[in-house]
Automatic annotation (TrEMBL):
Region Disordered, residue ranges: 1-43, 52-71
The protein's name in its UniProt record: Uncharacterized protein
Acidic residues: compositionally biased ranges: 62-71
Length: 511
C-alpha cells in the first residue's frame, strides 16, 4: 500500500522572531508579499484597486465601469428575503406561523385562522407609543384580518413569548491575520460569521461589492427594526516584511473601506490574529517568524491614520488574538487606550496569556456579539452573563476589556476591566495555587490559604504547604485593584469576578 501523503501543519502558538523594521526585507523576484515561505502566492480577496488608488482614499474603485461583468443587484442576487421582511425570535417567519401550541389540543394547524406572536403584534401597532397596560393582544385572526375573540392563548413562559424585539443593522466582520497562519486560528472568526449570517439578509465579500457595485436595499418603512440586513465579510492576510507586502496590504484595506462605505455599514467587528515572540512579546508581522515588532508599531501599520479616522464615527469592536507570550507592554497598553479615547474603537478585548488558544475563545466572542449586536444589550452587562457558563475559559486566560462610558457630566471617558475566574481552592482571589513544593517535593500540597495584612499594611495571600513535616509558605502580594475580589465559590465550576484595571507590571504577570 502506498504511503499516505501528509501535510505538515504549524500548530505552535508562538515562535521566536527577530525584531526588525516593517518593510525592510528586499523584494525578491517571483516571491511577493503574499508568498508563504516562497511556495505559493496568496490569493487576494479583491484586486480591483491599483497602486495609485491605494494612495488616494477618495478614489473609489467602484466608480469604474466594467463592461465585461453582468450587473448584479443585492436584493435580486444576494438577499435571501424581500426588503420589508421582519425577523422575529418568536415566530422566525416574518410575523406569521402556521402552527401553534395549545395547552389542550397540543399542535394545531388551523386553515381558518392565522396566529401572530405578541412582540410582532405589539410592533405592528405603533409599539413605542402604546403602554403595555393599554395593549390588547388578540393573537388569532380570521381570513379577513379581523381578530377572533373567543380563542384564548395561554402564555405560560414569559421568556419565550414576550421579549425585547431584535434590532438588526448592517454589519461587517473582518479578520486581519498574519500570512501562513494555521486554520484553527480562524475558528472564532468563522463561527462569528456563521452566527451573524443567520440574522443577515445575505452575505457578501469585498470583491462582490466592488465588482458589482452593490448597494444595501432601502426599506419603504424605516420604522421596521427587525428587517434582515446585509453582512459583509473579509479576511485579509498580511506580510509586512517587504515594501510590496506593505503596499499590497494598503490596497486591500482601501478596498475594504470602499466596500463598507458602498453598503452603508456603520458597525464593524475586527479580529487581529498573529503570533508573538516568547522572549520580547513582539508581534509577528510576517509568516514563519520572519520578523516581529512591538505591539504599538504593528497596530499602527495595520490601522493607518486614514483607517482610524474612517472608523471614528462607526460602532467598532476589536478582538486581539495573539498566540505565544503576552504581547502587551506599558507602551502597547497606552497605544490601545488611545484607540479607545479617540473613539477609533469603542471596545477592545485582550487575552494576554501565554500560549493562547483562540479556539477556547469562540463561545465567549460569538455569544457576546450575539447579545450586543443583535439584541442590543449593554456590553458591560452582558460580559458577566456570557462568562457565567465558561469556567474552562477561565482556566485558560483572563480577559481585559477597554471601553468607553459617560461620566456624571455626560463626557466620554475610557475605562478598563479585568475579568478573572476564581475558585476557593484552585484559584483563590484569582491567584493560581502553587502546584509543587520544592522543599518536600509534594504536588498539590498547598491546601492552606488565607488573606492577610502584610508588614506594609497591604493585603497578601499566603499559601501554606501541608506536606509531611513541611512548613513552606508562598506569599503573593495583591495590588490595590485586586482588593475587591473575594476568595471564590466552593463549587468546582467556580465563578468569574471583575475589577478595575490599572497598568501594573506585577498584575500583568498574573494574567
Amino acid at each position: 500500500m502506498p504511503r499516505k501523503r501528509t501535510r505538515k501543519i504549524d500548530k505552535t502558538t508562538g515562535a521566536s522572531a527577530p525584531r526588525m523594521a516593517l518593510g525592510s526585507v528586499p523584494n525578491t523576484s517571483g516571491v511577493g508579499s503574499g508568498d508563504e515561505n516562497g511556495r505559493r502566492k496568496r490569493k487576494l480577496d479583491v484586486t480591483v484597486v491599483t497602486h495609485k488608488s491605494a494612495l488616494d482614499v477618495n478614489n473609489d474603485p467602484s466608480d469604474a465601469d466594467d463592461d465585461e461583468t453582468e450587473p448584479l443587484d443585492y436584493s435580486t442576487h444576494f438577499s435571501k428575503f424581500p426588503p420589508d421582511t421582519q425577523w422575529c425570535r418568536g415566530c422566525n417567519d416574518s410575523s406569521e406561523t402556521p402552527k401553534v401550541t395549545c395547552d389542550d389540543c397540543k399542535h394545531i394547524s388551523p386553515n381558518w385562522s392565522r396566529f401572530i406572536c405578541p412582540p410582532c403584534e405589539h410592533s405592528s401597532k405603533g409599539a413605542p407609543d402604546i403602554k403595555l397596560s393599554e395593549f390588547v393582544y388578540h393573537g388569532f385572526y380570521d381570513s379577513n384580518g379581523a381578530p377572533i375573540p373567543k380563542v384564548l392563548l395561554e402564555i405560560r413562559n414569559r421568556q419565550f413569548t414576550w421579549f425585547k424585539p431584535l434590532k438588526l443593522e448592517r454589519l461587517a466582520i473582518v479578520q486581519l491575520q498574519v500570512a501562513g497562519i494555521a486554520q484553527d486560528l480562524e475558528i472564532p472568526y468563522q463561527i462569528a460569521v456563521l452566527k451573524a449570517s443567520a440574522y443577515a439578509s445575505g452575505v457578501v465579500s469585498v470583491s462582490e461589492v466592488l465588482g458589482h457595485q452593490l448597494r444595501s436595499p432601502e426599506t419603504d418603512n424605516p420604522d421596521l427594526p427587525c428587517c434582515p440586513q446585509p453582512l459583509l465579510i473579509s479576511k485579509i492576510a498580511f506580510d509586512l516584511a517587504t515594501e510590496d507586502g506593505v503596499s499590497e496590504y494598503g490596497r486591500e484595506m482601501v478596498n475594504l473601506r470602499h466596500a463598507i462605505n458602498s453598503m452603508g455599514i456603520t458597525r464593524v467587528v475586527f479580529f487581529v490574529v498573529s503570533h508573538s515572540d516568547p522572549e520580547t512579546g513582539d508581534l509577528h508581522f510576517a509568516p514563519g517568524g520572519a520578523g516581529a515588532e512591538r505591539l504599538e508599531i504593528v497596530m499602527k501599520a495595520l490601522f493607518s491614520p486614514a483607517t482610524t479616522e474612517w472608523l471614528r464615527p462607526k460602532e467598532t469592536y476589536l478582538f486581539t488574538l495573539v498566540c505565544g507570550s503576552k504581547p502587551i507592554t506599558a507602551d502597547g497598553y497606552r497605544h490601545l487606550q488611545t484607540y479607545v479615547t479617540s473613539r477609533f474603537f469603542e471596545n477592545i478585548f485582550l487575552f494576554p496569556t501565554n500560549n493562547l488558544q483562540p479556539l477556547e475563545l469562540t463561545s465567549f466572542i460569538t455569544n457576546l456579539l450575539d447579545h450586543v449586536l443583535f439584541r442590543h444589550e449593554p456590553i458591560g452587562t452582558m460580559i458577566p452573563v456570557v462568562l457565567k457558563e465558561l469556567s474552562t475559559l477561565g482556566l485558560h486566560t483572563r480577559i481585559l476589556h477597554l471601553g468607553l462610558r459617560t461620566d456624571s457630566r455626560g463626557r466620554w471617558i475610557s475605562y478598563a476591566d479585568r475579568y478573572v475566574w476564581t475558585q476557593r481552592t484552585r484559584r483563590p482571589w484569582g491567584l493560581d495555587a502553587p502546584a509543587f513544593c520544592p522543599q518536600c517535593n509534594t504536588i498539590k500540597s498547598f491546601r492552606g490559604v488565607e488573606r492577610l495584612e502584610g508588614p506594609d499594611g497591604k493585603l497578601v495571600v499566603q499559601f501554606k504547604c501541608h506536606g509531611a513535616n513541611c512548613r513552606a509558605a508562598v506569599t503573593v502580594p495583591l495590588t490595590s485593584a485586586e482588593y475587591k475580589l473575594v476568595r471564590g465559590p466552593r463549587e468546582p465550576c467556580g465563578g468569574w469576578q471583575q475589577h478595575d484595571f490599572q497598568w501594573n507590571e506585577e498584575l500583568l504577570g498574573r494574567f
